[in-house]
Design brief:
The chain is 41% helix and 17% strand. The strands form four sheets. The chain has a seven-stranded parallel β-sheet with strand order 3-2-1-4-5-6-11, with helices on both faces. 48% of the residues are buried.
Length: 345
């Protein structure tokens, strides 16, 4: 790729989006444009990205469900590829407010594909999720695992999104898309100056752990202790956010270099290791030297019992692998929590 390509990152102020922009800006092959509606993110994330990279990039503040506003980005820029993160992502909230999730997550993707078709943008990386696998009976899961009924509206929007991409690619043979089914992103940038940044009290485990440890929250409630697992708590495949970000860059490289054999492909992104909630807490306590105040509570609607990944396909196709273990994940997450508290973020 001798000439710089322009990549649009939707949801670029979000957790994974901001870390992916950092990796894109470190790669001299790409110019970056970011769009975010700031529904669950902060413009300060852009400032942190610029501080880390020393580079500027163009940004838009738009609700992607507004096709007319979204169209401005494509009209004003020549875009070579899109990395689509923008979506609501709380399992629990999606159970409580399903229409909010169906409207936002599906309508925004419909608009994206409509505009890609209109403006002849032929490459999209889609942010999917391990939640598409639901409560599978056989572990680890791979890309050939039969997709069961979703356990939450959020998970169902990801299943629908994958089906939309697959159907769109069948009808548009010059269009290329990759769905990355990643498992549980955790950790923070190695600088310690950007990480998971939810507005309000987080719903994900690790920022709750670090928030309790720093004194933001009084106690952590472990959501269920009577699952059929080795210690009674849910098992997840945790993966460092920078490893996920790197995979998105590699996936875009792969499409732009025309290395794909099919115009729609799916890859798992996971470490391949299942870690229980209690094991994650123990790993944090060891890294931080802090004893966490937690108790076992009721199960949360929509949660799957256990899921972890076979990621051999992506390792072979993209040459990707996890560089960070659970210790690194917890260490960087804690450093970020300390940093943002010191800087009143």
């Amino acid at each position: 790729m001798p000439d710089k390509k322009t990549v649009l990152v939707t949801g670029g102020a979000g957790y994974i989006g901001s870390h992916t922009i950092i990796e894109l800006l470190a790669n001299d092959n790409y110019n970056v444009i970011s769009v975010d509606g700031f529904f669950n993110s902060s413009p300060k994330a852009y400032e942190q990205v610029q501080q880390i990279t020393g580079k500027q990039f163009k940004t838009y503040t738009i609700d992607l469900c507004n096709e007319k506003e979204f169209d401005k980005i494509f009209t004003e820029n020549k875009i070579d590829g899109v990395i689509h993160f923008a979506a609501f992502k709380s399992v629990g909230e999606s159970v409580e407010q399903p229409l909010k999730y169906y409207h936002n997550n599906i309508a925004s993707l419909v608009n994206l594909l409509t505009l890609c078709d209109k403006h002849k943008v032929g490459n999209v990386i889609f942010s999917s999720s391990c939640s598409v696998y639901g409560n599978v009976q056989t572990l680890p899961v791979d890309e050939n695992t039969v997709i069961p009924k979703a356990e939450s509206p959020y998970a169902y929007t990801k299943q629908i999104g994958e089906n939309m991409l697959s159907d769109f690619c069948k009808q548009h043979t010059a269009f290329n898309a990759i769905a990355l089914r990643y498992f549980n992103p955790v950790g923070a940038h190695i600088s310690g100056s950007i990480g998971e940044w939810p507005l309000g009290k987080p719903s994900n485990l690790v920022p709750l752990i670090t928030g309790v440890a720093i004194g933001k929250y009084q106690q952590l409630t472990v959501l269920g202790g009577d699952y059929q697992t080795r210690d009674g708590t849910c098992i997840r495949d945790y993966i460092h956010v920078t490893d996920i970000a790197n995979a998105h860059v590699l996936a875009l490289d792969y499409l732009l270099a025309h290395k794909n054999t099919n115009n729609y492909e799916v890859f798992n992104l996971g470490s391949g290791q299942g870690v229980s909630v209690l094991e994650a807490i123990a790993a944090f306590e060891k890294v931080s030297g802090k004893k966490l105040n937690y108790h076992i509570g009721e199960r949360r609607a929509g949660d799957v019992i256990a899921v972890y990944s076979n990621s051999s396909k992506v390792q072979k196709a993209l040459g990707w692998k996890c560089e960070h273990d659970i210790t690194s994940m917890m260490k960087t997450a804690w450093e970020w929590e300390v940093y943002r508290t010191q800087h009143n973020f």
